[in-house]
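User: what does the whole thing look like in 3D?
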Amino acid sequence: MSSPHQPKVTSLVDLPSSEAKWIKLQKAIYRDARGNERIWEIASRKTTSKSGVDAVAMGNIIYHPSKPPSTILVIQFRPPLNAFTVEWPAGLIDANESAEEAAVRELYEETGYHGKVVSTSPAVAADPGMTNANMKLCMVEIQLKEGDPEPEQHLDEGEEIQRVNVPLAELYDRLEEFAKEGYVVAAKLYHWAAGVQYAIDHPKLFEKVGSKEGA
Amino acid sequence: MSSPHQPKVTSLVDLPSSEAKWIKLQKAIYRDARGNERIWEIASRKTTSKSGVDAVAMGNIIYHPSKPPSTILVIQFRPPLNAFTVEWPAGLIDANESAEEAAVRELYEETGYHGKVVSTSPAVAADPGMTNANMKLCMVEIQLKEGDPEPEQHLDEGEEIQRVNVPLAELYDRLEEFAKEGYVVAAKLYHWAAGVQYAIDHPKLFEKVGSKEGA
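Assistant: Here's the predicted 3D structure for the full assembly of 430 residues, as structure tokens:
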């Protein structure tokens, strides 16, 4: 860290729901499949956009004429974990903004790169047993030219986000190393990298029936 | 659904933190990298196990002598989303239980299958901007013999979980279909499947330097 201060949570106190601005607790009463009435506790965001989707993450691929294909990760202090996390760039979707618009905007703010969204996932659930928080994964391509300088970030006041460029071929191993060094890797990024690695290590498991040539 | 009732949230009310049993809101005061004091709102579980890890998910691979390799997914009504979700089997880790012990136990309870844990991820963060909730991904192998009957589940009272066996080669496409049909796919499972699919569709992006044969 080049920062003069090591970020740190200095106090953690219970927060009455009435004082919370960003998140809230709710109690759902629901009828189960047997017709019984039951209760479930839920943590929700107060800020879900009009589209009904909270957040977008940018699964980005950087193409460069003479460097291996890579992806840019962001490292930042996350107070909920009192730790630095390793994640793909991501952010909340603003009101009246599409997931794709938020993806291009947040990628530019957090990394300085201009990207092109090439695919968007359905809205998927962050932690379905605890919260209704959801997100979309946008896959974004970034095309660089020889000699392009590293762009400037455009962070909000108070935001401190470091960028790390990782060759895609090394992504899974690098995430394992980050975890050993005390960083907390985001589950979604980890799962994507683990899926890539599993497909590379076990190609026959994923062969479609009828495409057996070379097996 | 063969169930006589369609599960449904019938009421959703604010829950004072003091009345919540499973989750809570907290306010973190933290010092940022510039030395400024800031505030962040956090949703936490009250039940984190002694190991410091909340949950485990079972990324399972089913091997069968005459059927394509597959994975078992679970479909259940999730009150936070007021919807049926598609997830890998998962559960909270009990006190004094390891992630691997919880993985074998929960897989047996939710699916009836006996599995063998072949790898365990670091603790990764479910939704780092909102919560300290974390989990480990255990990859689990299930070896079936010809003619093995589908095992019985061993669910808790009130649990209603359906199993779906999906060939690995079709996993990504099936998740996209589930989403179109109104199910909510869990982000972690989706990211794993998307990583697999990306590696299959773009093998050259993941080639390590020095392994260019055939490129």
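In plain terms: The mean pLDDT of chain B is 93. The helical segments of chain B are 99-111, 171-180, 187-201.
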